[in-house]
Amino acid sequence: MAYSDGVLLQTVHVAYSAKAREGVDTKYANTVATAFGYTLEELQSIPAEANLGLSCGNPVASATIKKGEYVLDLGSGGGIDVLLAASKVGPNGQAIGLDMSADMISLARRNAAKQGLTPPQVCFVQASLTEPLPVVSDSIDCILSNCVVNLLPTSGKAAIMKEAMRVLRPGGRVVFHDIIAKQPLPAEIANDLSAYVGCIAGAITLEQYRAILGQAGFRDILFVDTRTDINVYALSETSGSNGCCPPTAGCCAPAAPSTKPTFDANAWVASYQIYAVKPGDQAGSTAVDRPANALQRWWDAFPTAPSGIPQISAEEVANLMKKGCPGQDFAVIDVRRDDHKGGHVKGSHQWPAQTFYNDLPEFINTFGRTSKVIFYCGSSTGRGPRCAGWYQGRLQELGLSSSAALVLEGGFKGWKELYGEQRDLTARD
């Protein structure tokens, strides 16, 4: 039977989330990775957990990534290609990984942290590849994808190509490694959930692939058959793998069989390198007119902040300032960045929200013994509560009860209405 797009996506999501949580046999993962072009030097340069044996190529090796470029990886998994790309773009570039699985995103973030890599230079964001990408238009130099497009339903394949065109800068390029069907697949393979999750049943023909790239507007399209043995996925008994991921089914998806394929994968599909370019002048692709962060929402690169942080009124904060003991009893934290210069609560400490999560260890050392830590931004509806939530969450993780986060009600706008002319309460740079 043919399955709906929703069932296919759910089955893939559950299977790959399980892979992220449970990990893989290192020997198996390295066997697959080296078969598809990764060198031992590359694999040894990143955390072992970043390689889950899910690749069908090594797109970074053929992408000619330059320093300062912005790179986007579609379906980033444990982070292998993003981490390799990060070493090439350098501190002035950006490497972003998108994946539908929260478990994969958590794993990739842990792997990046082991490398000392932090947002915005290197970041991983949970996002569905069948929906509009959370990336600024015309901001990306190179888009990578490694054995992922074949896992999208037909409509999703077309949608991701159009989104790739939108987010690329003029002259930008896609470098995909993917599984392509040598001929239309028979129903017994095309409708096999195990083969779908194993990166085979969702493969389309080269002509179909070229068509969706062309319809999205890409030019200079090139396909290169890597001639790699697709049956390498089934070589390890230890891994329990069936194709590039075990066919674990979720509660809402039909159970996929756990047996290995009864057919020779090489007879039906092949691994290809795929190149295409967005029309436009490549000159100046790293020019200064690009955004500082290619993400539409900078906070997507970080874990979701706990909500429900208590508020404190401006009047209560003013009384603390007049009667309290700043430093030990309370501290006021301004998490705005450029808009801080328009005025701020006198004596407040500036810790911009965009870098706050990365600075949490230092922040804890500075304020972890302060009874009340009061956060605010312009209206205290976005950055302030978010940073307060991150702080409170970290306090709970560390088991610290010596401090608590609060949010200034109304933010600086409300504060300014009440105390904007009182120089003992409001200051300007």
TrEMBL record:
Reaction(s) catalysed (UniProt annotation): arsenic triglutathione + 3 [thioredoxin]-dithiol + 3 S-adenosyl-L-methionine = trimethylarsine + 3 [thioredoxin]-disulfide + 3 glutathione + 3 S-adenosyl-L-homocysteine + 3 H(+); arsenic triglutathione + [thioredoxin]-dithiol + S-adenosyl-L-methionine + 2 H2O = methylarsonous acid + [thioredoxin]-disulfide + 3 glutathione + S-adenosyl-L-homocysteine + H(+); arsenic triglutathione + 2 [thioredoxin]-dithiol + 2 S-adenosyl-L-methionine + H2O = dimethylarsinous acid + 2 [thioredoxin]-disulfide + 3 glutathione + 2 S-adenosyl-L-homocysteine + 2 H(+)
Stretches assigned to the Rhodanese domain: 326-424
Recorded superkingdom: Eukaryota
Gene3D superfamilies: Rhodanese-like domain, Vaccinia Virus protein VP39
Keywords in alphabetical order: S-adenosyl-L-methionine, Transferase
Signal sequence, start to end: none
Keyword S-adenosyl-L-methionine listed: yes
Protein EC: 2.1.1.137
Protein name according to UniProt: Arsenite methyltransferase
